[in-house]
Amino acid sequence: MFIFDAHLDLSMNALEWNRDLRWTVEEIRASEEGMTDKPDRGRGTVSFDALRKGNVGLCVATQIARYVKKSSTLPGWHSPEQAWAQTQGQLAWYKAMEEAGEMLQITNKKQLEDHVRDWNDPTTSSPIGYILSLEGADSIVTIDHLERSYEQGLRAIGPAHYGPGTYAHGTDSVGGIGQKGKALLKKIEELNLILDATHLCDQSFWETMKVYDGPVWASHNNCRKFVDHNRQYADEQILELVDRKAVIGIALDAWMMVPNWVRGESTPQSMGVTLQQMIDNIDHICQLAGNADHVGIGTDLDGAFGTEQCPSDLDTIADLQKVPGLLQEKGYAASDIENIMSKNFLNFLKINW
Predict the structure, then answer these.
(1) If we measure between CA atoms, which residue out of 2, 23, 6 comes closest to residue 118?
(2) Which of 136, 143, 181, 343 is deepest in the core (most CB within 10 A)?
(3) Domains in the chain and their CATH numbers?
(4) Taking 90 as the threshold, does the pLDDT of residue 24 lie above it?
(5) What is the distance of C-alpha 13 from the center of its chain?
(6) 349 confidence band (pLDDT: 50, 70, 90)
(7) pTM greater than 0.85
(8) What pLDDT score was predicted for residue 261?
(9) Cα separations in angstroms, 217 against 133, 197, 245, 249, 273
(10) DSSP labels for 31-77?
């Protein structure tokens, strides 16, 4: 089944983890044997080969570079200009992969429809389609930089990531959006960019909903019902997004899937983390919405974690093909399964582009 993954940090893996995604997952893992600089070394799950094997023909691929002030304990760049430069390097990698015939940037409805048609044509071999998104807006030095990003193909943006940001407060922080945040939202709406509500803290989320009237989705968010943490959505937030005709992508980071996960100590096996928790999150959103039209896939696989912190029954991203069967076992109809795996996000884009 064709899969749309609404959140993959491909360029981060290429430039910061030094992974050549043209290699197989097995080759990437072998190249990292003995490396200890990052906890997921030798445990990656994503490559172009694995995406193809999993029929993940389209994804939302990120640029990401956090700006942090001197007092912050979070990792990041020490000026917005440095963060901007990092995102430009990431963009250069995407363009290099386009030139190599591996990827294809999608920026409008016609390109989207053409790509899905070509990908599903067994007589052709198509590049993996990607929609460019910015995770956390701290690299947007000025509003003019956002216009430049739009011209470069940016089509979605999340105002915040972790901690307090320039334009909003993100995960594990408390605060609102302020005047800079409101100005950013106004420009996002003017450009008809998709606002990614992922990572907004509760206060920033609700302040954003009050002043923003453009298209919104949540690329990779799970339900607070299962893990009581500010990174997840409370039912009221899910219902707000449903009312706005948004789609929420379910993520596969284990700490977001089961309570009481301890980084560096817990394992998927010891905590019983499987794709079943993904199904539970999908089903909860469907029950709240009263239909299966507002939930999709947003794995965040290899988003600074690998098999040490993802479902134990997933070895590579190709194993997403297990999800349709699990949804069928849950009682979902074939049309609803197809919507969840790709069509909800595709229809969202067709309506808003």
Answers:
(1) 2
(2) 136
(3) 3-352 (3.20.20.140)
(4) yes
(5) 14
(6) very high
(7) yes
(8) 97
(9) 12, 6, 8, 8, 26
(10) HTTT--SSTTTT-----HHHHHHTTEEEEEEEE---B--TT--S--B
